[in-house]
Design a protein that fits this description.
The chain is mainly α and 243 residues long. The protein has 2 domains: 24-113; 149-242, Methane Monooxygenase Hydroxylase, Chain G, domain 1. It has helices spanning 25-28, 33-73, 80-112, 118-121, 142-165, 169-178, 185-200, 204-227, 235-242. It is rod-shaped. GO terms for molecular function: heat shock protein binding; protein kinase binding; protein-folding chaperone binding; unfolded protein binding.
Length: 243
């Protein structure tokens, strides 16, 4: 049985509950990218506002404590009323500071548990500077695409099927490292068609296994598209991150 628990923390598609096995590959793995970006921007805005509020509170507390220190060094009797007022204000600011820090800590925990996606994976270890930028490709006709796909499958069908049957992350990475030419749209398309054929044949368990590997390949391709790099340049980083 395939373990899908790892995908609980990855946002593969915003449409995944609405897709159907018989639609084309692009629709099957379409992402509501704009909605996700807006959610991330809102989260970042909230984080910045909390950080700003916390820093402002710390600044006010530092100023208040400085005034307390100055009054304590001056004539204590004549400034007792003002000193007590400042001490009370300092205590209130300490409480506010603690409240701000608690909110920031909650937000950090929330951020840590947020699902991964091509936008979050492209940060911290997925810098564009470490990859070669993929050159712009000319638009192919449907006939050219079909011919290219047929030729690719004829040459590498056995290797693609072997990848589709793998279960462990290390094995998948090793296979793609040995056969980097498999990291492409043709492999993803073949796997999708294979999934549909297996479902029609009612081989549900095998279909789920191949579907898992299909999602792996689609995620790598989406990541490469987001970073504008050749997919072969980032699949190792993907496996490092997901493991």
């Amino acid at each position: 049985m395939v373990d899908y628990s790892v995908w609980d923390h990855i946002e593969v598609s915003d449409d995944e509950d609405e897709t159907h096995p018989n639609i084309d590959t692009a629709s099957l793995f379409r992402w509501r990218h704009q909605a996700r970006v807006e959610r991330m921007e809102q989260f970042q805005k909230e984080k910045e506002e909390l950080d700003k509020g916390c820093r402002e509170c710390k600044r006010k507390l530092a100023e208040c404590l400085k005034k307390v220190k100055e009054l304590e060094l001056a004539e204590p009797e004549s400034g007792r009323g003002e000193l007590e007022k400042l001490q009370a204000e300092a205590q209130q600011l300490r409480n506010e500071e603690k409240s701000w820090e608690n909110k920031l800590e909650e937000l950090r925990k929330k951020e840590k548990n947020m699902p991964w996606n091509v936008d979050t994976l492209s940060k911290d270890g997925f810098s564009k500077s470490v990859f070669n930028v993929k050159p712009e490709e000319k638009e192919e006709t449907e006939e050219q695409k079909e011919k290219k796909h047929k030729s690719f499958v004829e040459r590498y069908e056995k290797q693609i099927k072997h990848f589709g049957m793998l279960r462990r992350w290390d094995d998948s990475q090793k296979h793609l490292s040995e056969h980097p030419h498999l990291v492409c749209e043709e492999t993803a398309n073949y796997l999708v068609i294979w999934c549909i054929d297996l479902e029609v044949e009612e081989k549900h368990a095998l279909m789920e296994q191949v579907a898992h590997q299909t999602i792996v390949m689609q995620f790598i391709l989406e990541l490469a598209k987001s970073l504008k790099v050749d997919p072969r340049a980032c699949f190792r980083q993907f496996f490092t991150k997901i493991k």
